[in-house]
Specification:
The chain is α/β, with parallel strands linked by helices. It contains 12 helices and 14 strands. It starts with 24 loop residues before the first helix and ends with a strand.
């Protein structure tokens, strides 16, 4: 009944995306070497190495349940900086490298990128790893972070990662010139996590401020990328951010396949526990990283994120607006079927079919139905049901 395209890439503007969102063998090899590179770049004396798992656990606690106990300069502490570099940096690189190749990010020689909340240059490193086609392209990065030691650590790591044989220029601090790309990775969650989940107005206001901040730094025909943890509050923030960008004239390029209202901002109480996020298995993460995670009692079986890529000066192809983006894991349905949620111009969609067919539709993939749905909706979620044969 339905023909679909197994694309891990966006096809909004009918462009061929880089490598269809699949990491090259070279990129995979580099990712697997990250723990070793970190150990070489930031060696920890043996007498302090045994404390690393507990430092990771304590930093995780401060970043999640006990944010109020964390100072603004928490990463200036050597033990927390080491914990961040050994645990959070590689996991964030692994997560970003699963996303970036699927995005239509076109950067040519001389383009400028502003990276807000850079941390240890996570975005710069992830782009270098996942986009080998850009490694020889002269680019200028303006990296901004309030903690200087973490920026320096990031530059040291990137020098080792790229073997200092690259043509990318790394600056610390903002530039007065408009950028061709603006990105913010894990920057805003420290702010909106302090907002009550029932306070939609404050979250909406914060999203509007964030959109204005990034838009002011973006030049003509620029793209803006925001990546946040894939938790419910992040999904709500991203939904409000999308609306704010639309008001500023920035079109949602990904993950959205349309410019219609976000299905997660329409106030349907049946959808209140759902949010736009994408999950990737972590089974192929470096073994050394997995062992460290287990030692810190923070094992990861999957990586989850919410994100938004917007562009200016682009008209969306009407045919592409019929596409559906897969936005959830597979889950069982009554009658022995399985389902995944999808996002479309018609709103939230429940994709239903046999287990094999549903598992073929990976999170983040896009497909195009040949025929329209018959109008039936799922009682639990209110989503339009599409039966996949």
């Amino acid at each position: 009944m339905f023909r679909y395209r197994q694309l891990l890439a966006d096809n909004k503007y009918k462009r061929k995306m880089y490598n269809n969102g699949i990491l090259s063998s070279d990129s995979k090899k580099i990712l697997n070497s990250i723990p070793e590179l970190i150990s070489k770049t930031f060696p920890i004396p043996g007498k302090f190495r045994s404390a690393l798992p507990s430092d990771i656990a304590e930093l995780s606690r401060l970043l999640t349940n006990n944010r109020g106990e964390r100072s603004l300069s928490y990463l200036s502490r050597p033990n927390f900086l080491s914990a961040y570099l050994y645990y959070f940096l590689p996991w964030n690189l692994f997560r970003l490298c699963r996303l970036l190749p699927s995005l239509d990010i076109q950067l040519s020689a001389g383009k400028r990128i502003t990276d807000l909340g850079s941390g240890p240059l996570t975005f710069v490193s992830a782009l270098w790893i996942s986009r080998p086609d850009l490694r020889s392209v002269p680019l200028e990065f303006n990296c901004v972070d309030r903690v200087k030691p973490v920026l320096k650590a990031g530059k040291d790591f990137f020098s080792v990662l790229s073997a200092e044989a690259n043509v990318w220029k790394i600056n610390f601090g903002e530039s007065s010139r408009p950028s061709d790309m603006v990105c913010a990775v894990n920057m805003f969650n420290e702010q909106y996590d302090r907002i009550s989940h029932n306070n939609s107005e404050e979250l909406k206001m914060m999203a509007a401020n964030a959109a204005n901040l990034m838009s002011r730094k973006a030049g003509k025909d620029a793209c803006i990328l925001t990546v946040e943890p894939g938790v419910p509050q992040s999904g709500r923030f991203i939904s409000f951010l999308r609306s704010a960008f639309l008001e500023l004239g920035h079109q949602p390029a990904s993950p959205c396949t349309h410019n219609e209202s976000c299905p997660f901002s329409q106030g349907d109480r049946r959808q209140s526990k759902k949010w736009c996020h994408f999950a990737f298995e972590s089974i192929d993460a470096p073994k050394e990283l997995q062992r460290l995670s287990i030692a810190a009692k923070l094992p990861k079986d999957r990586l989850v994120l919410s994100y938004l890529l917007t562009k200016t000066g682009k008209e969306r192809n009407e045919a592409a607006e019929r596409d559906i983006r897969v936005i959830s894991d597979a889950f069982p349905l009554p009658g022995g079927k399985f389902g995944r949620y999808g996002c479309s111009a018609q709103g939230l969609v429940l994709l239903s079919g046999n287990k094999n067919r549903i598992e073929e539709l990976k999170s983040l993939s896009v497909f195009s139905p040949v025929t329209a749905a018959d109008g039936k909706r799922d009682e639990k979620s209110g989503a339009l049901i599409l039966e996949l044969e």
